[in-house]
Specification:
Chain lengths: ~475, ~90
């Protein structure tokens, strides 16, 4: 038998894709991804329309989606994250049907339990053999882990692998196995390398960011969790990475042997692995070239599926054993609810990703953010969008001090004993308002443009159109 | 009075870029303001701009202002600098 098909259009025909069906994509090629638009171009040429697109993240490179929405080719979007370009169009009300936002754990959970079935999954694969054994670790478009793509490949009715590096059968060290793959298409190019991974992920030089990072690392040290077996996840934002660097210094000084680092992996986490801060890395997505190189060569740097990473309906997932996670926020309210979906004017420019999964799983979840950004205080009375519920958020760290969720007075006492500046979250809000003034609430429209689902599938919040 | 076109500030986050140009006597102040925080602080920003111009004795001028989330003291400082430069007092 042969699974090789000469082009994407032929493969789509073979899958039997029809109007009204659901197709899926994963986002490991990040802002360099060419596959989603390539497939939609072919779908459009075939005259298929009214499609529901389930894509683990929408990046700005997916701007052509906007035209396909206008033309009725795409009528539904389900995603975990949406960048500002498509987000703006959605916020302005371009879609009739609201976008469904899930989390990185909720998405595979819903796919696996049948709550969001996929008709045809398209897997962008940096290397594949002719039967569809494929990996992201090698090839000119190498992206490292393919963690988010597993549920799609395994549970879609039909799975098409699209690669720009077709190799001889059998591919050694595959990620997704041939038994899930129906068709394989070789194309010239699946992604723009500069957009797939950054060359180097840089630590912030911003003094405000460094103070925040220092407080965050010291808070982790004081939390009582920084002992042998410690597990940790951090974001790729400037202050989060700087916190990881400070944390590494503390771990080496105190000779703490951690168990695992989790999440989207950067070369800073790789560095911590190599220094012996962790026994292993669990990697659902690589952010830079150092991470890609490491996952390819170091057996202790392991690829995990999105379900293993964060699914709330898995028998267990890696977030369940997590000690500390460092996360960002566009807003946090006085009940510790966090917004990572919209900006302060209500425009969609993000999404949960693994935010609420890790916040729920970790023993201590920390939000790192400056007290204000461009005159807007980080602490508000009520977030414009509840992305992560406040009862799973433990600590806010700003350059002026920390605020601890009243549910976690145990941490508050530890931080105070360590000499960290601890305030009530209302005090941090007042500090920011004294400097900036009290902002008026932006006026939003009535139309619901997105439903935000919590990781268990329940409706957490709704995002309204911008007027 | 404002004798010449002048600018102050930058388009960096938390700064404000001010461009001031002469206007005929009696023309008053014309203000073209854009701000990333207009919804949150629009009236406050306008008030600070008008107040600062009044304090500096500027009655007639055309201003184009691009705000990137500057706080009041920054707005005042940029307006004052632009006015000084516009008056040729640098």
């Amino acid at each position: 038998m042969s699974k090789l098909v000469s082009n994407i259009k032929e493969a789509i025909k073979l899958t039997g894709l029809k109007d009204g069906m659901t197709i899926s994509f994963h986002h490991h090629l990040r802002n360099g991804d060419m596959v989603a638009v390539m497939v939609l171009d072919a779908i459009c040429e075939l005259g298929i329309k009214d499609l529901n697109v389930n894509i683990s993240s929408v990046f700005d490179t997916h701007a052509p989606f906007i035209e396909y929405i206008r033309d009725g080719v795409v009528t539904g979007i389900e995603t975990d994250y949406m960048g500002g370009v498509v987000g703006r169009a959605v916020s302005e009300g371009i879609m009739n049907k609201p976008v469904t936002f899930r989390t990185h754990g909720g998405r595979p959970s819903d796919i696996i339990r049948g709550a969001s079935p996929i008709d045809v999954a398209f897997i962008a694969a940096p290397t594949s053999d002719c039967m569809g054994n494929c990996t992201g670790k090698t090839g000119k478009s190498a992206c490292g882990s393919l963690g988010y793509a597993f549920a799609d490949a395994m549970y879609a009715s039909k799975t098409v692998v699209i690669t720009d590096n077709l190799v001889e059968y059998p591919l050694v060290d595959y990620s997704i196995a041939e038994n899930y793959v129906d068709y394989v298409v070789a194309v010239e190019k699946i992604g723009e390398p500069s957009g797939i991974v950054s060359g180097t992920t840089k630590i912030t030089k911003d003094p405000v960011g460094l103070v925040i990072a220092d407080y965050a690392a010291r808070a982790i040290d004081a939390s009582g969790l920084l002992v042998d077996g410690f597990s940790f996840q951090t974001g790729a934002g400037g202050a989060s990475l700087a916190a990881a660097k400070y944390l590494k210094d503390i771990m080496l000084k105190k000779n703490v042997k951690g168990s695992y680092g989790l999440g989207g992996i950067t070369s800073y986490m790789v560095d911590m692995l190599q220094c012996g801060c962790f026994k292993a890395l669990y990697d659902v997505q690589c952010f830079d070239l150092g991470a890609v190189e490491s996952i390819r060569t170091n057996p202790y740097h392991m690829e995990v599926t999105a379900a293993h990473y964060a699914s709330p309906t898995a028998k267990s997932s890696a977030v369940d054993s997590l000690d500390v996670v460092i996360l960002g926020a566009t807003e946090i309210d006085t009940d510790f609810n966090v917004n990572v979906h919209t900006d302060s004017n209500g425009y969609i420019m993000g999404g949960s990703g693994g935010h609420s999964d890790t916040a729920a799983g970790a023993k201590m979840s920390m939000i790192v953010a400056p007290l204000s950004r461009a005159r807007l205080p980080i602490v508000v009375d009520k977030v414009l969008c509840k992305s992560t519920p406040g009862n799973t958020v433990d600590v806010l760290v700003t350059q002026r001090g920390l605020a601890v969720n009243p549910l976690r007075n145990d941490l508050k006492d530890r931080f105070k004993d360590a000499g960290l500046p601890v305030y009530d979250i209302h005090e941090l809000k007042e500090m920011a308002e004294k400097l900036n003034g009290v902002p008026h609430k932006p006026q939003l429209g009535d139309k619901v443009v997105a439903n935000v689902l919590y990781r268990d599938g329940s409706l957490l919040d709704q995002i309204r159109a911008v007027k | 009075m404002i004798k010449q076109k002048a600018t102050a500030g930058t388009l960096e986050s938390s700064d404000i870029f001010v461009e001031i140009a002469p206007a005929e006597a009696g023309a008053g102040i014309s203000l073209d303001l854009t701000s990333v925080v207009y919804q949150q602080f629009g009236p406050e920003i306008e008030a600070v701009i008008y107040d600062t111009l009044k304090e500096l004795g500027v009655a007639d001028a055309a201003l184009t202002v691009k705000d990137r989330g500057a706080v009041d003291c920054t707005i005042r400082a940029r307006i004052e600098t632009a006015v000084c430069r516009g008056k040729g007092e640098e």
